[in-house]
Amino acid sequence: RKLRFSELKNEFSYMSDRMLTLQLKALEQDGLIKRTVYAEVPPRVEYELTEMALELGPILTQLSEWGGKQRRLVQE
User: Fold this and answer.
1) Counting Cβ atoms within 10 Å, is residue 33 exposed (0-12), middle (13-18) or buried (19+)?
2) CA dihedral 3, 24, 13, 60 (to 10 degrees)
């Protein structure tokens, strides 16, 4: 779904505004998010995942599961 900067900031409250901005720019340059600016006052900007990013979803899920498994093995 489309999210505004303030919504992303709430999701990633541990990040500074500057770091979130830098990460969003990098993700946009890598083609993983699409940034849409609306000609309104005040300006409205929305971010959404691209098809390429959505294709990464299952891969990231597998990596997360693998990492969890490895963490449990190390703790034993």
Assistant:
1) buried
2) 90
Task: Give the residue from 34, 27, 28, 30 showing the smallest Cα distance to 50.
Answer: 34
How does pLDDT run across 31-42, given as a tens digit for each residue? 999 999 999 998
64, burial (CB in 10 Å: exposed 0-12, middle 13-18, buried 19+): exposed
Cα distance between residue 16 and residue 63, in whole Å: 26
> Are the C-beta atoms of 47 and 24 separated by less than 8 Å?
yes
Query: pTM to 2 decimals?
Result: 0.77
